[in-house]
């Protein structure tokens, strides 16, 4: 049984006890029956009115609850539609009071969400408006009369975040460009003369409109200023080069040069003006020292002629170089010629350097070739002979490779310029071929001269005999006594060519008998070897003595003389 039912029964019992007590009181007082009946009717009426009033109040409460439920249900449906969420569904059976409470709680929650979304939408709109005004971009399109959905708010947030990033990047670019513009203006001594330039330089950075158009205009302004700055720097460098050239030509002392050293750096307007004044002063001084300047230019001109491998005909083609009239016209002609030569050298510098490298290698190669035919080179000290042989072998490999590289470069240059590349008035590759041919002819000539000399010497020795020679001692061989030469019945014969001599193994002297001449019949001479009885040192090689000497049809073998070369 519910407590409410128990309380109802107790209420009935209390009411009965109260009525019984009233009857006892009425009886003790002696109230008649009719009055008791009236009084009982009054009690009944009071109780009934009280109960009716209570019932009416509870019925009113019920009606209010039902009305509140209907209102909350209607508002909740509207809020769910505005917030784009699913309608509220009560789970399971519930009482009127609980249903009203749940609906009222849900309505309050929906109202709060709606208010928060509206507030966030308003805040995003304010931020979007501020950013769009700075960036000069259109506002974000969204329906402000309705409640935005969560997805719409998320998209709006991303849009505002993108605008912030765009603003930050453009602002950073603007600040950087502004800094460069200010530096260029200071370098050029330029004062802002347009409203846009004043807005960039003078106004607050936050007030500047960061539109794409303004950024593009800023970049264009910076490029213009940089071009002017570059032109100014080039002009200043040109003036400095002109000043240095005039200093060298006029032989200006160092003390006077240091006086203008402060303007030899930088490119500001005042620096350019000071450089121009110095150039004007030097030009006036140049006119006063015409001969000295022209002679200095001629020295530089000759240097460029050498660097460009000009032939004598090409040099003589510039007639003003040889005149003795030192006038302003002659000076102008020299200036024009030196400018032309300087440009010509810079354009072909790589080729000229290659030609110069080939010539140096060629001279070194010829020097090694000359040393090869020099017998004194065998008197080697400190391993120089080995070094020379290594360098000579290296040159024999690098020279053809260098010639091929130059040939390829020259062919490309000739195709590009549609003219021949000449060195000393001659095609370079023809010049190289000619040098090799001259070298070959010189070697042939030297060989023929040696053969002729050897032939004459052989004929002389055949007629008159050879003269005694005392060879120098060789390193690494033990000394021997010249007197201890074994004498044989036959005559000792020693032969030598024009470029070599026979050296005894033990350092003794070999004497050639004046009567030991070839017999008229051309019979072979008797060969007698001289030795001191000692063994040949191990350091002497025996495989190099395989040459034969031919004397009037007779062959004298050199194998007998072990240990020395012929």
From TrEMBL:
GO biological process, one term: microtubule cytoskeleton organization
Coiled-coil boundaries: 96-130, 215-242
Single GO term (MF): microtubule binding
UniProt keyword list: Coiled coil
Region Disordered, annotated ranges: 448-486, 516-539
Keyword match Magnesium: no
Annotated Pfam families: MAP65_ASE1
Signal peptide: none
InterPro entries associated with the record: MAP65_Ase1_PRC1
Biased composition (Basic and acidic residues): 448-459
PANTHER family on file: PROTEIN REGULATOR OF CYTOKINESIS 1 (PTHR19321:SF1), PROTEIN REGULATOR OF CYTOKINESIS 1 PRC1-RELATED (PTHR19321)
Stated name of the protein: Protein regulator of cytokinesis 1
Annotated source species: Sus scrofa
């Amino acid at each position: 049984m519910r407590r409410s039912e128990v309380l109802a029964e107790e209420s009935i019992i209390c009411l009965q006890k109260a009525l019984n007590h009233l009857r006892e009181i009425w009886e003790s007082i002696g109230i008649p029956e009719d009055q008791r009946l009236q009084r009982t009717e009054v009690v009944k009426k009071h109780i009934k009115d009280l109960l009716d009033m209570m019932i009416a109040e509870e019925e009113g409460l019920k009606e209010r609850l039902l009305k509140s439920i209907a209102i909350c249900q209607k508002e909740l449906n509207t809020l769910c539609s505005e917030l784009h969420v699913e309608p509220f569904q009560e789970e399971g059976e519930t009482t009127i009071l609980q249903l009203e409470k749940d609906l009222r709680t849900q309505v309050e929650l929906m109202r709060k969400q709606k208010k928060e979304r509206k507030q966030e939408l308003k805040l995003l709109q304010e931020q979007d408006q501020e950013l769009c005004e700075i960036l000069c971009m259109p506002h974000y399109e969204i329906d402000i009369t309705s409640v935005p959905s969560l997805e719409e708010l998320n998209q709006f947030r991303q849009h505002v975040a993108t605008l912030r990033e765009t603003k930050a990047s453009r602002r950073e670019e603007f600040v950087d460009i502004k800094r460069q513009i200010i530096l260029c203006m200071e370098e050029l001594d330029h004062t802002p003369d347009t409203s846009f330039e004043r807005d960039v330089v003078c106004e607050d950075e936050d007030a500047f409109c960061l539109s794409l158009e303004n950024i593009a205009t800023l970049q264009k302004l910076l490029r213009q200023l940089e071009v002017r700055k570059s032109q100014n720097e080039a002009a200043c460098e040109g003036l400095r080069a002109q000043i240095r050239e005039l200093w060298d030509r006029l032989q200006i002392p160092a003390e006077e040069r240091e006086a203008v050293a402060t303007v030899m750096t930088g490119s500001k307007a005042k620096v350019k003006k000071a450089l121009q004044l110095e150039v004007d002063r030097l030009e006036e001084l140049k006119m006063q020292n015409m001969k000295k300047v022209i002679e200095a230019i001629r020295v530089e001109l000759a240097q460029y002629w050498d660097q460009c491998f000009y032939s004598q005909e090409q040099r003589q083609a510039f007639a003003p170089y040889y005149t003795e009239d030192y006038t302003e016209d002659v000076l102008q002609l020299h200036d024009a010629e030196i400018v032309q030569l300087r440009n010509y050298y810079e354009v072909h510098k790589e080729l000229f350097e290659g030609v110069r490298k080939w010539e140096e290698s060629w001279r070194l190669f010829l020097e090694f070739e000359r040393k090869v035919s020099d017998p004194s080179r065998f008197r080697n000290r400190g391993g120089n002979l080995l070094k020379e042989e290594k360098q000579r072998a290296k040159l024999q490999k690098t020279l053809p490779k260098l010639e091929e590289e130059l040939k390829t470069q020259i062919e490309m240059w000739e195709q590009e310029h549609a003219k021949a590349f000449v060195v000393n008035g001659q095609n370079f590759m023809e010049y190289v071929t000619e040098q090799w041919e001259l070298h070959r002819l010189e070697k042939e000539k030297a060989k023929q001269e040696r053969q002729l000399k050897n032939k004459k010497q052989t004929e002389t020795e055949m007629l008159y005999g050879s003269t005694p020679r005392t060879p120098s001692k060789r390193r690494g061989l033990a000394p021997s006594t010249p007197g201890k030469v074994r004498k044989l019945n036959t005559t000792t014969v020693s032969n030598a060519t024009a470029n070599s001599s026979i050296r005894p193994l033990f350092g003794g002297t070999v004497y050639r008998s004046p009567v030991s001449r070839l017999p008229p019949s051309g019979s072979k001479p008797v060969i007698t070897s001289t030795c001191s009885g000692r063994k040949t040192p191990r350091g002497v090689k025996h495989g190099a003595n395989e040459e034969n000497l031919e004397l009037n049809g007779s062959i004298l073998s050199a194998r007998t003389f072990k240990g020395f070369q012929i």
